[in-house]
Write a structure and sequence with these properties.
single chain; alpha+beta; Aminopeptidase; Endonuclease, Chain A; eight-stranded mixed sheet; 12 helices; 16 strands; about 25% strand; elongated
């Protein structure tokens, strides 16, 4: 069935936007009114999905943060119209509209709704917490353009580690970065990265640094290992990862490959025991990523471990002043 989707400011939004939220969140779920209605409504875009006869069936809101992240929230589907895909179509419309302007999407999801958001390319990025008496988790999507173009029959949960077992091919820097961040953000204990020199455009980014920092601080057994060929450019440019290493020296380690030991001619990154991204060469943003490939990850991990064991510490880093 055709679904019409309209966008309004809070001042011009029809009464149905408020009525659906009141019915779903306050009446059904028992959210206190003082928590449901907040100042964010005034700065958000409000979306409403309508049937051909103008019957309202779903609503949601979206607003940008100062960190250029698109925040989604207050998604609600009228009880009698649930299970028909209207909410998913509304969410995908919002993702499609925002994708040209944002590459970082965030939302707080009720735990029971996790599969709903995973179908649109979001992944869980926090432990459960209580919000208005309801268990929630934070979810993010770093590759919205890829997610909205994924075929649902092939990728029912695109970009989700352990769920999406179809390979992603990429040939642009934007897609490479989106896939790299999507995998790094879902690592729970181990992230191993092998590259020539951790290229500035690819890795010297605030978001990637934050993802490494979050992983390193998550668990006492967390580890980030960086294996590269050249370290001088990192030190000379005060690479953000180098600065992070100095703050977390026991959790983030760097070694240089041995010139006397065989090395891989492809750059790669592996997360835990299931996800990886591989570039066909050090100087080109072409390759593939897979979010559920334990066999392939095992082979890459063995290659990494051999190079790591033969590697040596960075003299350049030791010479840095504290």
């Amino acid at each position: 069935m055709t679904l019409k989707i309209r966008k309004y400011s809070w001042q011009l939004a029809p009464d149905a936007v408020k009525d659906i939220r009141l019915s779903v969140f306050i009446d059904e779920q028992g959210v206190p009114p003082e928590l449901e209605w907040d100042d964010t409504d005034a700065i958000a875009d409000h979306f409403i999905a309508l049937l051909p006869d103008n019957t309202p069936v779903a609503v949601a809101r979206m607003y940008p943060s100062i960190t250029d992240t698109a925040h989604f929230g207050r998604m609600a589907v009228v009880k009698t119209y649930r299970g028909r895909g209207y909410g998913q179509r509304l969410l995908r419309h919002m993702v499609t509209e925002a994708a040209p302007d944002f590459d970082d999407f965030y939302l707080s999801a009720q735990v029971k709704a996790i599969p709903f958001y995973q179908r649109a390319g979001f992944h869980v990025c926090s432990e459960p917490y209580d919000d208005a008496g309801i268990p929630h988790v934070d979810m993010r999507c770093f590759a919205p353009t890829l997610a909205i173009n994924a075929q649902p029959n092939l990728r029912p949960r695109p970009l989700v580690v352990g769920q999406d077992n179809e390979s992603w091919l990429f040939s642009s820097e934007r897609d490479f970065i989106a896939l790299t961040d999507s995998i790094a953000s879902q690592a729970r204990q181990r992230l191993w990265l092998y590259d020539r020199l951790l290229d500035h455009d690819h890795f010297d980014r605030l978001r990637f640094r934050e993802l490494l920092s979050n992983l390193a601080r998550r668990h006492r057994l967390s580890e980030v290992k960086l294996l590269i060929h050249h370290d001088k450019p990192l030190v000379q440019r005060r690479h953000q990862i180098i600065e992070l290493m100095r703050r977390l020296p026991s959790k983030i380690q760097l070694r240089l490959v041995s010139p006397d030991h065989p090395t891989d001619d492809r750059a790669f990154m592996i997360a835990d025991r299931g996800a990886l991204i591989v570039r066909h060469g050090f100087d080109q943003p072409e390759g593939f990523a897979n979010f559920s490939a334990p066999g392939h990850v095992k082979r890459q991990a063995e290659s990494f471990q051999r190079m790591w064991d033969a590697g040596r510490p960075s003299v350049e880093l030791r010479q840095l002043p504290l």
